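REQUEST FORM: STRUCTURE PREDICTION
Request ID: SP-0412
Submitted by: Lab K.M.
Chain count: 1
Length (residues): 259
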Amino acid sequence: MLALVTGASSGIGLQYATQLARDYHCDLLLVSNQEKELNEVAADLAAKYNVRTIAHFADLSLPDAAENIYDWCKKQKYEVDILINNAGVFFFNEYCKTDIKRIELMLQLHVMTVAKMTRLFAADMCARERGYILNMSSMSAWMAMPGIQTYNATKAFIYNFSKSIWYELKPHNVHITVMAPGAVDTGLFGLAPNLRKLAVALTVSIPPEKLVKRALKKMFKGKKADTPGVINWLSTPLLKHTPDWILFFAQKKLRPFMH
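STATUS: Completed
RESULT:
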């Protein structure tokens, strides 16, 4: 099988590429806007796991990125069996102080590119009566949180979009899964090591390796959606009904970290 992984040169995307090669013996079509790192990852995974790797440098935030990647795959006669829409960005800003170009980039990358990649590759999968798609959402999809208003809105789109077309694709033996993790144990949040360990122990945060292992298992089982961590899963209804006073308090405390 050939797996197309976006954002594959680092982070969670690199984990998807690694585990697909190592544990499922998939050939890889790796897409990223980090050309040097992407070529290094492709060479490394090919050597380690004896799979075919193809590095394709592309800026997925461009309006025609999905069409260009799809057309390139057609021209190269690459038949994509697994699509991992992982590429994403994050920023923490007051909306009216955020550069419009950054807002456009996030909307394009998280909404339009994901929607169009899914549309183009899912149609071919339906014609073949087989295929898997995994889209990355977030628990923030249920949060009305100042500072991440664009991020959580785009993740809400991914979540509802993926769950909705699960019903359309299933009769064609094509499976789409959306993952909505809470915090992932990386250096993104700047937590002290002891706090990171505590968050992992409480299952509030999840190591990227564990997240990807779980996500791939859910995808291959044809599960519709998943939120890792018991506490995260139980707290989901509460996130939808967080009182305004808590959010105003959070906004006050977090404002120094917005940039």
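NOTES: The CA atoms of residues 35 and 57 lie 6 Å apart.
Reviewed by: T.R.
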